[in-house]
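Lecture 7 notes: from sequence to structure.
We start with the chain below.
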Amino acid sequence: MIQSLDKVLEEALKINPKDLKLISNKKKISKIIIKTSTNQGYEKLNQGNYKDSMKYFNKVLDVDPRNIKALMYKSEILFTTKKYKESIKCFHIVLYIKIIIH
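Predicted structure tokens for the same chain:
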């Protein structure tokens, strides 16, 4: 439900990109998506359900591609599932964000 509302707001912003109320609502919904998806992903990770956990962390990254926490968890899942090259790639993104962008 929240994600579909987020998409509606995206479309509305395309029509009226300077609408401050729409921008504010989009930011609020994005924060909710990030928080709930991170919590659900962490819960699934603790249960050993890597596939579903990855889905939730990818949802976070769809909203915020620079989310360090989601990238770290994703890297951990990839490492645990023996996808070492992908895990290292993900971790390199974290380092890039930490060192160069921040």
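Points to note: The longest helix spans residues 20-46. The chain has one domain: 2-101.
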